Amino acid sequence: MFDQLDALLLARIQFAFTVSFHFIFPAFSIGLASYLAVLEGLWLKTGKQLYLDLFKYWLKIFAIAFAMGVVSGIVMSYQFGTNWSVFSDKAGPVIGPLMAYEVLTAFFLEAGFLGVMLFGMNKVGRKLHFTATLMVALGTFVSAFWILSVNSWMQTPVGHIIGENGQFLPGESWWDIVFNPSFPYRLVHTVMAAYLTTAFVVGGVGAWHLLKDRTNLHARKMFSMAMWMAALVTPLQIFAGDMHGLNTLEHQPQKVMAMEGHFQSHPDGAPLILFGIPDSEEKTVKYAIEIPKASSLILKHDADAPLAGLDTIPDDEEPPVGIVFWSFRIMVGLGFAMLGIGAWSLLARMRGKLYDWKWLHRGAILLAPAGFVAVIAGWITTEVGRQPYVIYGLLRTADAASPLDAPAVGASLLAFVLVYFTVFGVGVWYILRLMKSAPQTGEKGVKRGDKGPIRTAGITPGPTQNPGDPDVLPRNEEEAR
Fold first, then answer.
1. Which of 289, 353, 372, 425 counts the most CB atoms within 10 A of its CB?
2. Are residues 278 and 325 in contact, defined by beta-carbon separation less than 8 angstroms?
3. What is the domain range of residue 302?
4. How many whole angstroms separate alpha carbon 134 and alpha carbon 202?
5. Contact residues for 268 (Cβ-Cβ < 8 A; gap 6+)
6. Tally of domains in the chain
């Protein structure tokens, strides 16, 4: 049934589908790992059981989200070899070492300390357990560091040379590749987006339980912490996004042209098009609602500054304007909605009504998934806006794909869709089920199996006795006494 379709289009759909599914989980786990570190730190500092209860409550959710992120991420590496072998061959000498650094740093940190963080609360000292939590949080950030460095190099490739066989080879300094022109902006913007994504999930869960019981201390603390994050970090994120946009205008001008819907150049100041329907064939935005000269004011800080349009770009180098135009507006619109909730929460806090205003709580529940939608919309803006290149200005997407027939790509795409919606759908359902229950005093946290880890050889020992571990049961009546 895939014979009539284009293999390249199917490969792009497959990668877009799997990366969008995958990106949901790191966007949550990066922020949640740091939130867990804050909760445990507050518990150690104050000794309040409330913080420990919240730590154990969110630790269960983190364990599932982290696992799904790892599993969904493995698929991405395989696709480089199956559907994008030409890209892997040409760019491998540059991106291969960077992705290996992620394994040697982030994965080693997470693998070394995740077990202690999840199961070691009653088995190691408090300081060592807190160190493990910090290391896992650091590992999630380091992972984002390397992956975003790879992606940013594909957006703004520098520091390389091109070999005789057409491969991209590292130049004199790896630091030029790692810290390419767009990387610092993309790193800050993406990591802050992850923190806000987590904050609005935590805030939404807290608001849900506040609507049921306004006296719930756990829900109050969750909601208060989340709203502080929304009020303080959202303005910083908008500022970081603006700086990132100015950097994009400098290095990828046609992406900004598509974001703004500027088919035509504006020598005397460009308007800010709020809404409209881009028409790439007629080179215009129909039914445009715009603010005169506002785009020049934002991008050039001068209302009369000229801005070039897509009429200066060859047609075969234009990105798909409609997708980029609307994904950008979804991201920006949700960003300002988050800002509104943050400002609303500040007003409620000043009036002593943070836990009483039900419409504020309903708004927080409504925006609980907003971070996920915003990061996916931002990712679509970034990736589709780079088209028709996979390595901007140097390697076209059409030239990077594997020589596969459409049925082969289509069959794997269909398999991914079925497996992803089944496996990860169940995982998301279970996370929502955990969130539905309010945190309790004396939360149990993550439980391990009664038999301990399975050995591949020899006798599997029984559970190790540790009086401080509530999950370990006595093996006979004498031990129980």
1. 372
2. yes
3. 181-398
4. 19
5. 304, 306
6. 1
Spatial separation of the C-alpha atoms in residues 442 and 245, rounded to whole Å: 47
Neighbouring-strand partners of residue 307: 266
318/279 Cα distance (integer angstroms): 13
Q: Which residues of 183-220 are buried (b: 16+ CB within 10 A; e: fewer)?
A: bebbbbbbbbbbbbbbbbbbbbbbbbbbeeeeebebbb
Identity (one letter) of the amino acid at 324? V
pTM for the full model? 0.87
Query: Is 85 inside any structural domain?
Result: no
In a domain, 406, yes or no: no
Rounded Cα distance between 171 and 43, Å, is 48
Long-range pairs of 394-401 with CB within 8 A, sequence gap ≥ 24:
394/157, 394/168, 395/87, 395/90, 395/91, 397/8, 397/12, 398/8, 399/86, 400/84, 400/86, 400/87, 400/90, 401/7, 401/8, 401/11, 401/83, 401/84, 401/86, 401/87
220 domain residue, yes or no: yes
Query: pLDDT tens across 160-198, in order?
Result: 999 888 899 998 889 999 999 999 999 999 999 999 999
The CA angle 139-143-147, to the nearest 5 degrees, is: 175
- Residue 249 is predicted with a pLDDT of 92
More confident residue, 152 or 80: 152
User: How does residue 2 score in pLDDT terms, banded at 50, 70 and 90?
Assistant: low
Mean pLDDT of 122-143: 92
| DSSP label of 109 | H
| 3-class DSSP state of 169 | strand
Query: What is the distance between the alpha carbons of residues 436 and 424, in angstroms, rounded to a whole number?
Result: 18
* Contact of 354 with 348, CB cutoff 8 Å: yes
Contacts of 89 (CB under 8 A, 6+ apart): 167
DSSP label at residue 458: S
Cα atoms in the Cβ-side hemisphere of radius 13 Å centred on 396: 8
pLDDT for res 448 = 58
Q: Please give the radius of gyration of the chain, using alpha carbons only, rounded to the nearest integer.
A: 25
DSSP letter (8 states) at residue 170? E
Q: In this structure, is residue 430 part of a structural domain?
A: no
pLDDT tens digits, one per residue of 405-421: 888 888 888 988 898 88
pLDDT value, residue 477? 42
CB 149 within 8 A of CB 98: yes
What band does 288 get if pLDDT is binned at 50, 70 and 90?
A: confident
DSSP reduced 3-state for 47:
coil
pLDDT at 176: 93
